[in-house]
Structures are given as C-alpha cells and as structure tokens.
Amino acid sequence: MVLENNFPPMIAARNYAYANIAAYECTAAGNTKFTSLSRRISHMPNMPKPGEAQVDYALSALLALVKVGNAVTFPEGSLMDVYKQLLKIADSLGVPQKIVRSSIKYSDSVASSILQWSKGDRYAATRGATRYSVNDSAGRWIPTPPMYATGLEPHWREIRPFVLDSASQYKPGRPPVFELHPGSTYYRSLMEVKETVDQLTDEQKHIANFWDDNPFKMNVAGHVMFATKKFSPAGHWMNIVGIAAQKAKSDFSTTVASYTFTSIAIFDAFISCWDEKYRSKYIRPETVINEKISSDWHPYIQTPPFPSYTSGHSTISAAAAEVMTHFFSDTLSFTDTSLLEFGISNREIKSFRHAAQEASISRLYGGIHYRFDLDSGNAAGKRIGSFIVNALLK
Question: Are residues 187 and 70 both part of a single domain?
C-alpha cells in the first residue's frame, strides 16, 4: 500500500488512517493491551464484537487492513491479490478452516463498519467543491511552474478530524507581513531561501532529495512533459514506522498500534496545516524570486501546488515523531532505507524527532519554503502529536 498509494499527500494520509484503524480494531478485540478507539474518538461508532466463534485476530487485522485499504485507495480491487495471498499463508501455516472463516467474517464486519463511518468525514462532499480562486494580490499564492496547477485541496480543512476539536484548534501565529524592502523580516527570509539554494552542499542536496516525497513530479525536457512518482510524505512515514517496529522487535499488536496512531496524527496534522494554508494563502519563494530578483532562478526541488504557510512536511513530520517517540522512545536510531528503490541512498536517523527536523529543513534546502513556514509547522505539529498521545494513549 505504501508503494502504490501515489495520491496527493492528504488523501494518502486519509487512506492509511482508515485502513490502519480497521486493523487496530481487530487487534484490540483480542488484546488487553489496547482498547477500541470508539471509546476515545467521539464520533466513532462502536465496533462489532467477534462473538463466540474462535478468531485469529492477527489474520483478521491484516484482512481488514487490506479490505479497507483497497476500498479507499483502489476501487478496482488491485489490492485483493494481497488478500488472497494472506489466506494462502494462513492455510500453509495450518490455521483451521473454521477459524479462517470466522476470522474473515469478523474482519469483514469491522471493515464494513469503518468504511461506513468514513463516509461521514465530508471527503466525498469536497470532491465537487469549488476550485481555488487565483488572483495576483501582493503576497498571495499563485500557481508555480512547471505545472502551474491550481491550489490542491483548498477544502481539506472541512474534512472531519479524528481527534482535534476542529481544524483551527492549533492555529499558528501570523506569518510575516509581505514587504519587499531589504530590512523587512519577509525580505530577509526570502533571500535566505535563494542564498541557501545557490550554495547547497552535497549533504543538503541529499536531504532535500531524500525528503522530497513528491507523489507526482512533473518533468520537462524540451517539449516533452512526463510525471515521475515517489512516496507521499504520509507513505514515507508509514515506511519509517515499519523500519522502527522491526528495529525495536515490536510484537504484532504494538506494531499495528504504532502504524495506527501515527497515521491518525498525520491525518489530523494535514487538516490543521491545510486550514492555515488556505487562510493565509501565502506566496511561494519561487514566485517572488522569479518576479523580483532573478527570472531564471529555480528551486532545487519542485514547488508543490498549494500555498506556502505553513509547511506540510514540518507539521505532519513533527506530529508523527511525537507519536512514534511515545511508542519507541527518543533514542531509537535507525537506517531509513525508504528511498533506495528510487535511486536515493539511505540516511542514518538518530531519532524520530531528528527525522522530523530533517524533513522540515529539507524544504528550505529544496527552495520551496521560508524558514518561518518550517518553524510554525514544527511547533503546530509537535502540539498536535502531543495532544493525540495524551488523548488516545494515556
């Protein structure tokens, strides 16, 4: 699912969250270590009970994960080959058919309940919502090259969060006033972006490329345009959860829980961040540098199609890091191998918070964010992550 979920980042986060919650609910039904989220997420309905039939809860969890993941991600059924493979593995391990049947029945009931619940989050309604209205007011975001795409998901703030009271619960402070005179806070921040990109070190380039996580990069070669895909930011963090769980030798239930709560944090963090993006509608550095300083300047990585303030990478990474630190501590170091398949070498990560800081600063190195985007995103993300830990895990 991480490899194929090449959706816009916030939609990918939604897909991961519902699929992981389905797996978690099956796991929690057979494990006293974790309890149903329906007791802590106010709008979540009670989940079905397994009944008296004997259930393999791990098998049910995996089947529910795939079934919900398939439904929210690939309606044509492309993940169902994985579903069939799980049943073959259960058979090869000698799981009695009676237990397999009861496990399927239970996983189906949970998956159905999760999917029905998901329909109330207003995602479907936002599919037909009005598009972003572009104008060229001073300091306001406008589309950037090479795609010049309109603002992505301007109504994402309307999506129902899992844990946050509202999209604006952790509303950040105001960004600097858009002023182009050399002594202004904005101008100094703008020039920091340009000067950073103009003198990038090899290490900074690696960090920018490693955390780029552009699920749909448009490449231009002469008159030819073609897209290449990598992980979304949410997918990258899901991969980190798997790496960390393996390094920590986590048991099955803890691994499922760490995926689930991290995906919830990322989902709510995106809603919070997008609430601010389309409140401030802040202009990207590339636009101002091209118009006022150097028409042939380019950021090191491609500017994504939405406003600058605050940084989505910074917000969701800081939120994810707080949840993962709760599960695995702040001292678990690991090798992040997530980008090898895309030809980008590994990075050695000292801790989850260190990973979040790298993900954040990568956006300055990439030339697509001001430092104040990062600082405000980091602060909001950390508060969101801590809030989710306190609300769901303590």
Answer: no
**What's the pLDDT band for 373 if we cut at 50, 70, 90?**
very high
Q: Which of 91, 106, 96, 133 is nearest to 28 (CA)?
A: 106
Task: Enumerate residues 6+ apart whose C-beta is below 8 A from 281.
Answer: 140, 141, 307
pLDDT digit string (tens) for 92-127?
999 999 999 999 999 999 999 999 999 999 999 999
117 and 22 assigned to the same domain: yes
Q: Is residue 220 predicted with pLDDT exceeding 60?
A: no
- Within a domain: residue 52? yes
Q: CA 287 to CA 273: how far, in whole Å?
A: 21
CATH classification at residue 368: 1.10.606.20
How would you write the chain as a 3-class SS string? CCCCCCCCHHHHHHHHHHHHHHHHHHHHHCCCCCCCHHHCCCCCCCCCCCCCCCCCHHHHHHHHHHHHHHHHHCCCCCCHHHHHHHHHHHHHCCCCHHHHHHHHHHHHHHHHHHHHHHCCCCHHHHHCCCCCCCCCCCCECCCCCCCCCCCCCCCHHHCCCCCCCCCCCCCCCCCCCCCCCCCCHHHHHHHHHHHHHHCCCHHHHHHHHHCCCCCCEEEEECCEEEEECCCCHHHHHHHHHHHHHHHCCCCHHHHHHHHHHHHHHHHHHHHHHHHHHHHHCECCHHHHHHHHHCCCCCCCCCCCCCCCCCCHHHHHHHHHHHHHHHHHCCCCCEEECCCHHHCCCCEEECCHHHHHHHHHHHHHHCCCCCHHHHHHHHHHHHHHHHHHHHHHCC
Taking the alpha carbons at both ends of the chain, their separation in whole angstroms is 29
